[in-house]
Amino acid sequence: MKRRKGFTLIELLVVMTVSLLVLGMVLSSFDMMQNAMAKNKAKSETETYIDNVVLQMTRTFTGARYIQVSSTNTASLTMVMPGFLNKQKITAPSFSRGFALVDPPYAGGDYLSSGEDIYGDILVLLAFAYENPLYNRSTTSVDYWYLLGVSNMSSGQVTDKSNLVYVEYNPLTGGHSIKNLVTKPELMWIRRLEIIPQRLGSGSTNNKILNFSLSARHYMKRSKISEDLRTKHDVYNYETTKFFTLYIRGK
């Protein structure tokens, strides 16, 4: 009987095993490459977002006549969101402001009242007073306000849609428009914000320095809910904190 040529069962099993090992190594490398790309994207988007926030704040607010707060040199505002942050589980949101928003310095009209924090679904953080130099009004006149705030608040908490915004507010007509400082990427949350006003002189219209600390986390690989439940940071998610200073020139 003539013997047929071909592979034995053992040879086929060896080839299949080697092929599976090679395929596993290729897929593992591909997965590592995907994770690295996701982390780089999260890092890039987070850093770019905060850098653009700093840029837009500088462009928008440094020209204000003054910041409408009654504060001391040590007063600060701190907002911390619940979740797993800095290896700690924060169970409840916290918001404290050591200074108060005071009434705008003009007579009549509809305006943000003293101590009022919520403007629609926006948590107001600071009020910046502006005047139109073409009007040549008195030093106490305010032609419009920019209110710095956090949008899409729900029961006092930041949501995945929350973003830093400013409200352009007309005190004479009560009209207003709301704009994002910067478009926030999806899957990114604002986690912590601190503002420390530093008074440079006496009086309500003095120049001031605003010291900011802003933390944002990008949940690129694992969602915020999943990370909070596991109380463990995913290595492919990315978080950054930026410290920056705004100088309000005043008048």
Provide an overview of this structure.
The longest helix is centred in the first third of the chain and has 53 residues, at 9-61. The strands form four sheets. Strands 1, 8, 9, 10, 11 and 12 form a six-stranded antiparallel beta sheet that branches. This protein has one domain. It is built from two helices and 15 strands. The model is unreliable at 103-116 (pLDDT under 50). It has helices at 9-61, 224-230; strands at 66-67, 69-70, 77-80, 83-85, 88-90, 94-97, 100-101, 118-119, 122-130, 144-150, 164-169, 176-180, 188-199, 208-218, 238-248. With 251 residues, it is an alpha+beta fold. β8 (118-119) and β9 form a beta hairpin. The termini are far apart.
Helical region count? 2
Shape: elongated
Biggest beta-sheet profile: 6 strands, antiparallel
Q: Specify the structural class.
A: alpha+beta
Mean pLDDT: 76
**SSE string:** HEEEEEEEEEEEEEEHE
Helix % is 10-25%
The separation of the N and C termini measures: 108 Å
As a whole number of angstroms, the C-alpha radius of gyration is 27 Å
The total strand number stands at 15
- Spans with pLDDT under 50 lasting ≥5 residues? 103-116
| Percent of residues in beta strands | 25-35%
- Number of domains as seen in the coordinates: 1
